[in-house]
Amino acid sequence: MLPLITATAVLASGCGENSESAVQDRGSGAIETAPVIVERVELETELTRLEAVGTSRARRSVTIFPEASGEVVEVHFEAGEHVAADRVLVELDARDEELAVELAQVRLADARRLYQRYQQMGAAAALAETTLDEARTAADAARIELQMAQIELDDRSIEAPFEGFVGITEVDPGDRIGPDTAITTLDDRSVLLVSFDVPEILIDRLAVGDPISVTPWNNRNTQLQGRVGDIGSRIDPESRTFLARAYVENDDDRLRPGMSFRVVLELRGERYPKVPEVSVQWGGEGSFVWAVRDGKAASVLVDIVQRQAGQVLVDAALEAGEQVVVEGVQRMREGLEVSVRGDQTSTGGGRPSGPEPGSDSTS
Questions:
Q1: What is the DSSP letter of 348?
Q2: What sign does the dihedral 281-283-285-291 (CA atoms) show?
Q3: Which of 5, 24, 154, 222 could link 30 by a cystine bridge, Cβ 3.0 to 4.6 Å?
Q4: CATH class of 18-41+280-344
Q5: Per-residue pLDDT tens digits for 30-77
Q6: Could you say which architecture CATH assigns to the domain 94-155?
Q7: Is 206 within 8 Å of 196 (Cβ atoms)?
Q8: What angle do CA 106, 109, 112 make, to 5 degrees?
Q9: How many CB atoms sit inside 10 A of residue 260's CB?
Q10: Which numeric CATH code is attached to 66-92+156-181?
Q11: pTM here?
Q12: H or E segment at 1?
């Protein structure tokens, strides 16, 4: 009997005051408890990182064609020059159109004088109603002819439709050009539109205004910020993606339309309970964690949503602030009373000092 008494004494000495509630003689009616270390549940937003290749274009970009055919008499720009809106870029020979405008002005003035004369004569001249109507119609027709002549004259000057940078031109004074002749390109590149494909599974997660970062492939040290400006209205049935477009400021004019970019976008989803990865166990019904409820162990089934640096977002019946067991899970069973030896935070709180749960102290 002496060895048995000695072993009992050693066990009592090793447990100490803090372990009085540990495993005791069941025959004496004492309740079995287990020391554990727990961590409190927090709610965290699911984050999905999307990386894609994007292609840029200018906010406004056109190729300029003349409205009419004619001989080029003057080119008023150089390649790469920044031009203002309505700036005249090319002039065509306009002598015939100028004469047509003058002739239309003369005809309009003559028609208006005749109509005014008929109006002043009035009833005293016994003019037929139709005569007055014809004079008024002739004046209106002359006014329209003048407007048409003016439009043809304006078409002899090709202007920039908006502010931007012009490209290279192959047009020189003396060339004859027509409506199918490309004079030059014009780009408003103060803002670039970067288009990229997004998997269809994220159609409900992406929204206009979401922040985005882009990095030019030719300079990976330059990271620029932008925002999602447009989202495509349909999904490509072959690639199972949809098109999105981001707006990126280009105030210093370092970027060019047509450049390719590495696009990075973090999409925020729903909020889920966050638990330590070590607290997740697996059983016959799937993954679960041990929660401490009313001082007792309770298994809670969980579906893993996302892993985040040692933490796991789970879809489970857990509330913020609840305690889950992170150490001592091996001895857990449903309804077992537990004694909390430490309460860490999910932000990386330090491990409590003292012996680990379940270890025997022999000091």
A1: T
A2: negative
A3: 24
A4: mainly beta
A5: 457 888 888 899 888 888 888 999 999 999 999 999 999 999 999 999
A6: Orthogonal Bundle (1.10)
A7: no
A8: 150
A9: 15
A10: 2.40.50.100
A11: 0.64
A12: none
